[in-house]
Design brief:
There is one protein chain. This protein is an all-alpha fold and 293 residues long. It contains 13 helices and no strands. It is globular.
Length: 293
């Protein structure tokens, strides 16, 4: 039976909506999109930029809501998600679905009117991959991580396309960095949350899905790739030598954390990689932008 929304004041409802939108995750999506936009822009229009960011937030929120609707029965089985609005009975699936429709339609309109058709199309592709392909694949196997890495890496490319109306080599470079970053990021989270994920039947760790040396080596290898990739923006003239140095230092520090995981294979070591991944991406993106400015 569908959960029934309880009576709430405005503040409580807004708090529940923020959880449905995965507000922090959606804000990170907007940050990455804004990063790509600023790198690609030639002439800055604050109004277009602001509408693009708001539209991106709403589309990201729409996909997050649909994800929670489709996974509500599994969210109820996991400690970290059992208190989300739908499994907790705070918001009904019907209300959540209606919110997602309004958010998605408004988001697409804002992105289209403030940017271009190509950026809007890529936003819709990202939305479809996340909500309708990645979400069900999480219970199939580790292939979900590869599929999920695509919409996870599209925001900076979408931002570049929004500013330039073209998919260029430079756009693919910033997409590639965020695409490869997704793997150590996802797997570190999957390692730390392994017991919770198993309760819901999610299979995200590589190979046999164990917290062992094979998984640790995979995390290390993908993190290693980030070091040469981090130099490509300077190579393609997107940014300069200063950001290349910052990206290299961050990449080496990030890589060092993976050696600890290979040595110890503990949740504590994986947790450090998870936090390291949260720091790595925004730091290098800010460095690239500042280097361009």
């Amino acid at each position: 039976m569908e959960a029934i929304s309880i009576n709430m004041n405005l503040a409580q409802r807004l708090k529940a909506y923020a959880v449905l939108f995965k507000a922090r995750l959606s804000a990170l999506v907007v940050f990455s999109s804004a990063f790509g936009y600023v790198l690609g822009m030639e002439h800055f229009s604050f109004s277009s930029f602001a509408l693009f960011c708001l539209g991106g937030f709403l589309i990201s929120g729409c996909s997050s809501i649909l994800n929670q609707i489709k996974e509500s029965q599994f969210d109820a089985l996991m400690k970290r998600t059992s208190e989300r609005p739908i499994p907790a009975g705070i918001i009904s699936k019907t209300e959540a679905f209606n919110l997602s429709i309004v958010s998605g339609v408004l988001g697409v309109i804002l992105v289209y009117t403030s940017t271009n058709f190509l950026a809007t199309s890529l936003s819709l592709i990202s939305f479809i991959l996340y909500a309708f392909v990645y979400t069900p694949l999480k219970r199939v196997g580790p292939i979900a991580v590869f599929v999920g890495a695509i919409p996870g890496a599209l925001p900076p490319l979408i931002g570049w396309v929004a500013a330039t109306n073209a998919i260029s080599a430079e756009a693919l470079v910033i997409f590639g960095i965020q695409f490869i970053w997704q793997f150590p990021h996802f797997w570190a989270i999957a390692w730390v949350s392994d017991e919770d994920y198993k309760r819901a039947g999610f299979q995200l760790l590589p190979y046999k899905g164990k917290k062992d040396m094979n998984t640790a080596v995979n995390i290390m290898v993908y993190t290693l790739f980030l070091i040469p990739l981090g130099l490509l923006p300077a190579k393609f003239g997107i940014s300069g030598i200063n950001s290349a140095i910052v990206a290299t230092v961050c990449g080496v520090l990030f890589l060092a954390q993976t050696f600890k995981l290979m040595h110890k294979c503990t949740d504590k070591a994986a947790l450090k990689i998870m936090f390291g991944s949260f720091l790595y991406l925004p730091i290098i993106q800010i460095a690239y932008v500042l280097d361009k400015v």
